[in-house]
Amino acid sequence: MIDSKKEVDFNFIRYANCWEDPEILLTGLSTPSQARILSIGSAGDNSFSLLSRDPSLVVAVDVNAVQLYLIELKKMAIKHMEYDEVVAFLGYTDSSKRMQMFDTIKQHLSSEARNYWEGHAAMIDEGIIHQGKFEKYFQLFVKRVLPFIHTQKDVEALLAPKEELAQRQHYQKYWNTWRWRLFFKVFFSKLVMGRLGRDPQFLKEVDVHVGDYIFKKAERHLRKEQAQSNLFLKYNLTGSFGDLRPHYLQEAHFDVIKANIDRLEIRQGYAEQVALTFGNFDAMNLSNIFEYMSKPAFAQTAAALLGCLHPEGRMAYWNLMVPRRVSGIFPAEATYLSGLSNKLSAMDNGFFYNQFIVDQK
Asked: What pTM does this model have?
């Protein structure tokens, strides 16, 4: 649960894409075929990716009904469109036919979702993956801030293929200017991010200097060869994913996800409450929900979720700026898979996160 439920506005899309790395999530949860999985909904991307592991059930849960309308829209696009159509409809490639495409699937949506999207048709027409508050925050950085620091050619040079030593040298010599350090830390400060990117209530438990913290995380990743193929970073610096696609929309995974799409259930509410209505799960993707909570709320929610996890089941989640670990407060009920967690944290394309944690019951 989020302590400040009444203070947080859930009437718009916060995230049009998931900003957590699905590759490390899939590896960390290591779900067997026919597993039952609980997944924080957000924009749905990682819940769709979980379908690639042939589960019997994935329950996408979110307190924000609008986020669930987004997931439902993506689900019906995947179910009723071919691959190239889905990519164009969502906004990864250019299209002037998105509204015609919407007309072919809208009858398959729930009445609530259909009414919402008919009332927000411009968002679909402009490419839905660009319409979240978080995405617009990055777009603002690309359009209004980054041009004062680096040119488009500078960005292309930073992300151009090169060996890691050359990437590190390029970052230090050409990219890491005083303007980059100053503007980055201001734009990604707690004040600016709270107002333009995330809700201030989501940063309520944060007690670190946000700008410095995120800068250090970004710097560590920008010096790596891995930065060149990171779709999150690509969007952060260009406002587009370019030719890169998230896991669920890579052609190698699309057919199996499409075949399993009806195994995805969408539910509104808090994860621990929704979980009770479905019985126990084999795995849980919990995003970074714990860092939004006070310590008492975290303990209460963690205990409830552990109670809905099968023996040997795993829960995976991220820490951004607030340290939370379920196995740390319930060591008798959950084991911290530290070696696996540390290995996957080092591989994380969601470079701004501090830690990826896998606990096993």
From this structure: 0.92
Phi, psi of 61 (to 5 degrees): -125, 140
- 235: pLDDT strictly greater than 90: yes
Contact criterion met (CB below 8 Å) for 99 and 46: no
- Inter-axis angle of helices 231-238 and 152-159, to 10 degrees? 170
Q: Is 123 exposed, middle or buried (0-12, 13-18, 19+ CB in 10 A)?
A: buried
Chain Cα centroid distance, residue 92: 16
Contact 90, 98 (CB under 8 A): no
| Among candidate residues 166, 204, 180, the one with its CA nearest the CA of residue 298 | 204
The pLDDT tens digits for 83-109 are 999 999 999 999 999 999 999 999 999
DSSP string, 14-66: S-SS--S-HHHHHHHH-PPTT-EEEEE-TTSHHHHHHGGG--SEEEEEES-HH
296 is written with which tokens?
């008492």
Q: What is the DSSP letter of 110?
A: -
CA atoms within 13 Å, Cβ hemisphere of 24: 24
Round to whole Å and give the CA distance between 229 and 185: 24
- Residue range 281-304: mean pLDDT, rounded: 95
Specify the residue for token string 């729930």.
110
Instruction: Tell me if 69 sits within 8 A of 113, measured CB to CB.
Output: yes
| Inter-residue contact 233 to 324 (CB < 8 Å) | no
| Rg value, the chain, Cα | 20
Strands of the sheet containing 36-40, edge to edge, are 264-268, 57-62, 36-40, 281-285, 309-319, 355-360, 335-336
Question: What's the confidence (pLDDT) of residue 209?
Answer: 53
Phi and psi at residue 283, to the nearest 5°:
-155, 155
**Which amino acid would we find at residue 42?**
S
| Alpha-carbon torsion angle 336, 340, 342, 348, nearest 10 | -120
Residue 37 burial (CB count, 10 A): 25
Beta bridge partners of 360: 314, 335
Q: What is the pLDDT of residue 201?
A: 46
Return the DSSP state at 316.
Answer: E
Among 233, 237, 236, 228, residue whose Cα is nearest residue 164: 228
